[in-house]
Amino acid sequence: MNTKSLSLHVPEPTTRPGDAPDFSYIDIPNAGSVRRPDIHCDPQAMRDLAFDLIRVMDDEGNAVGSWNIELSNEVLIKGLHDMLKTRIFDERMLMAQRQGKTSIYVQCRGEEAIACAQRAVLEKGDMCFPTYRQQGLLIAQDFPIEAMICQIYSNAKDKLGGRSLPFFYSEKEFGFFSISGNLGTQFMQAVGWAMASAIKGDTRIASGWIGDGATAESDFHAALVFASVYKPPVVMNVVNNQWAISSFQGIAGGSANNFACRGHGYNVPALRVDGNDYLAVYAASQWAVERARSNLGPTLIEWVTYRAAAHSTSDDPTKYRPENDAESWPLGDPIERLKTHLIAKGAWDDARHNAMIDQLKTEVKAAAKEAEKHGTLGKGPVPGAAEMFNHIYKELPPHLRKQRQEAGV
Amino acid sequence: MNTKQQDKDLASGKHIPRKNMLEAIRDALDIKLGDDENVVIFGEDAGYFGGVFRATEGLQKKYGKSRVFDTPISELGIIGAAVGMAAYGLRPVPEIQFADYILPAFDQIASEAARLRYRSAGEFTAPITIRAPTGGGIFGGQTHSQSPEALFTHVAGLKTVIPSNPYDAKGLLIAAIEDDDPVIFLEPKRLYNGPFDGHHNRPVTPWSAHETSKVPEGHYTVPLGKAAVTRTGQEVTILSYGTMVHVAKAAAEETGIDAEIIDLRTLLPLDDETIATSVRKTGRCVVVHEATKTSGFGGELIAIVQELCLNYLEAPIERVTGWDTPYPHAQEWDYFPGPDRVGAALKKVMEA
């Protein structure tokens, strides 16, 4: 009989503040080493892909292997533009939050490739169910950033009337479902939306998004069960940026097993992909989108990446992880890597790169300035108090009409 | 009680078929599946088998598997899927097998379906009707008997409906499905087969012996947000809904107190005009529901009555509810607020 005391296992990240960064827990195969199955492949016959890591760009910036689908320079330069614009937009909004123009902001620094590249392979009419860290889905469509800033500032031109948190955009025409602050809920809804497309015999597909931390929510399991049962046209994206605020991915069960392989329990084909490799994200997304569009059903993709910035402007990561951790992230920076690739191809150079940055900074600054004319949080021509009574129901019921009168608005 | 649609049919000499509550609900679902191709029905056992109470019986066969289908045992999945489908443009009518089982879906109901319109400024909406059998009286014990309506009336963005008879059940359900906002549609399961008056030791009266089982063929609606006066009276107003409407009627008859009974039908939005008109007339009020007492909907009703009718009240308002205990199994009839308890409350307000 065992007489030793039992003990609870609480996973710990490899490093804490003061330690040197250590990412030895991630195995990184050579670019181009992972096979590319046909989209008709039986999920059982491609189980190895959930434990591997699809990478296209090697350290010198060359595109290699079967996932290299030889994207045109035009597509790649657009991708670089989108990622740069997203980052510059984030930097500007971070500054705006520090200046008191909004209450909170969330950057997607380091993860730009994932939303930008996937959006590039989706079509108009498809619907994304994003988290708050996929602003690239809008920016990659050249969505007017002034409208995004007006929403972030909750000003008079915020089309959501100031009712929602900053960056909780809703843009139906751009395939961007209204963002919820309750984590994971949208993952199940994406599956439901895709089921509707199949019920109607349509051709549209859904793209659901969730973070590594929120995979612990029951919604993740429910979404996979429904996806496995009804085989709706949906791409199920898990953005594993290693951190859920201060909890490393091991607290979501990520050290026990990776997130991609969870698809196997449901017989949903799963890919694990270098999320900082624009070419790999593009190719893997295209594979999953083609499957969905061909009525072959869902695909689960784990994007391995790193949350290079704080969770939000209310967070201080130096309290729980080594400072400058992101600089040691072995999969590098998505913008730098695509730039290196384009230069290696002879399609880009530093001068053009810097010119693009300058032009985007000017563009973003001008949009912010224009948005500011319509007010910032609590300052200037902000939405009236009466707005809080709008859109609760299609028509305001009597008890709310009374309350609005009582509020004097 | 004759309704407008019944009056019209009677005037035209048309025969009105008799239906129990389940048949009336199935009829409403059949009509909406037939006249709106965006209506879809799904739930645990709701497809091939037609539901554990048989509310959807035959509908999969008639409309096909992509319109009426079985789901995994995942209430959050059922409602989460419904929210996604609604965002697509469908009009889902999911079934939750028992209202007791709805809690795993509460996040998808209260934070998602109820808020979608608000947070997207109407760009995405959730015209979902969630059907669930509610209440006790069938020896369902703790997990097949509860009345969770107050959980939903507390959430901005939802409408909550509880019918008490076949005619209303059909008309309210069609109105709920056609409504552009999410509706929680709670069906008192003890009423599926007969108008239960709380006397559990007497034989069940079938719906066919009740006036409200005359359910006209075809499409009609009973508007949401409108209460019905099911018994006119002068001495006291009873506010109730669902099963307890019938219990209240039994109590009024047995005590000989001339009570006016208001069947709220929709708890939110609440028809406070009908309530105020009646209480101002009678000067007395008893609130009756089967759900637990503390923070129950009865507390809300009492607050509204005193806001609107304080100067007319001749006695403190009484409330008769289930006890603040879990719903017990063997002690079901000690828990259930039957006609004796309602009668005692009526006498108390009359004597005050």
Mean pLDDT score of chain A: 97
Structural class given helices, strands, pairing of chain A? alpha/beta
- Widest β-sheet, arrangement of strands of chain A: 1-2-3-7-6
Q: Strand content of the residues of chain B, in percent?
A: 15-25%
Q: Could you state the CATH homologous superfamily of the largest domain in chain A?
A: Thiamin diphosphate (ThDP)-binding fold, Pyr/PP domains
Helix-strand category of chain B: alpha/beta
What are the segments of chain B in which pLDDT stays under 50 over at least 5 consecutive residues? none
Count of separate structural domains of chain A: 2
| Poorly predicted tracts of residues of chain A | none
Radius of gyration of chain B: 20 Å
What is the CATH class designation of the largest domain in chain A?
Alpha Beta
Mean pLDDT of chain B: 96
Sheet bearing the most strands of chain A, described?
A: 5 strands, parallel
Count of all domains of chain B: 2
Strand order of the largest sheet of chain B: 7-9-8-11-12
Helix content of chain B: 25-40%
N-to-C order of helices and strands of chain A? HHEHHHEHEEEEHEHHH
Measured between the Cα atoms of the first and last residue of chain A, the distance is 73 Å
Based on CA inertia axes, which overall geometry of chain A fits? globular
Helix content of chain A: 25-40%
Describe the structure.
The complex is a heterodimer of chains A (409) and B (352). Chain A has 409 residues and is α/β, with parallel strands linked by helices. Chain A has two domains: 43-378, Thiamin diphosphate (ThDP)-binding fold, Pyr/PP domains (Rossmann fold, 3-Layer(aba) Sandwich), CATH 3.40.50; 384-409, no CATH class. In chain A, 33% of the residues lie in helices and 8% in strands. Chain A has helices at 73-98, 112-121, 136-139, 145-152, 185-199, 218-230, 278-293, 334-344, 350-372, 398-407, and strands spanning 127-129, 206-211, 234-240, 243-244, 247-248, 270-274, 299-304. In chain A, the strands form two sheets. In chain A, strands 1-2-3-7-6 form a five-stranded parallel beta sheet, with helices on both faces. In chain A, strands 4-5 form a two-stranded antiparallel ribbon. In chain A, helix 1 packs across helix 9, helix 2 (112-121) runs parallel beside helix 7 (278-293) and helix 4 crosses helix 9 (350-372). The longest helix of chain A is centred in the first third of the chain and has 26 residues, at 73-98. The model of chain A has no long low-confidence stretch (mean pLDDT 97). Chain B is of the alpha/beta class. In chain B, helix 4 runs parallel beside helix 5 (106-113) and helix 9 (243-255) packs across helix 13. Chain B has a five-stranded mixed beta sheet, with helices on both faces. In chain B, strands 4-6-5-10 form a four-stranded mixed beta sheet. Chain B has two domains: 17-214, 3-Layer(aba) Sandwich (Rossmann fold), CATH 3.40.50; 228-351, Rossmann fold. Chain B has helices at 4-11, 21-35, 59-63, 75-88, 106-113, 116-119, 149-153, 166-178, 243-255, 272-282, 297-309, 332-335, 339-351; strands spanning 39-43, 68-70, 91-95, 129-134, 159-161, 183-188, 228-231, 236-240, 259-263, 266-268, 285-292, 318-322. Classes of the chains: A alpha/beta (409), B alpha/beta (352). Chains A and B meet through helix 5 and helix 6 of A and helix 4, helix 5 and helix 6 of B.
